[in-house]
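Work Package 3 (structural annotation) set out to generate three-dimensional models for the target panel prioritized at the project kickoff. During this period the team completed the workflow that converts sequence records into discrete structure tokens, so that structures can be stored uniformly alongside our sequence database. As a representative example, we reproduce one entry of 159 residues exactly as it appears in the project archive.
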Amino acid sequence: MLKEKLNWDDIPNFYSNQETNNNQKNTFSQMNSRTRVFLTVLATIIGGLSLTLYTTISEDILFENLSFCSSSSQDLVLGSMSLFTSAILAGFIATLIVVKDNFVPHFFISLFIIGKMSVAAACGQWHGPLWFETGMNLSLIGGIWLGRYGAVKFPLAPF
């Protein structure tokens, strides 16, 4: 066997690898402020629009005007699960856009859902009992945040 002379470059350096990993985790915080604000606004808009699109597809197209008064119990269960899944997807998409380090888009989307619920309550635009509509909107908020959690734990997402 041939003995090769070892250089310091051949020995892996634990500390430099650890610094590289820390730098990869903090890429969003190292962006300049314009890029960070742009990605936050973009994630809020795309997350909100995707939530609107997915919930519209779930409520109006797949389950044909999902309503507590006129839908069957099977449609209510499947429609509720579909709306929750829509919110999870929207939260996941918004998190991937902001590179997993920012929760501001989810906060604004949650405020939008609360505002929509308040306007619907004030104008009398409920399609069912108060507890049902409130539960549906709270499940959307929970789905948004669960989607964020899933995207943060997603192993293939960018840092």
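The helical segments are 14-25, 27-30, 33-62, 73-97, 104-123, 130-153.
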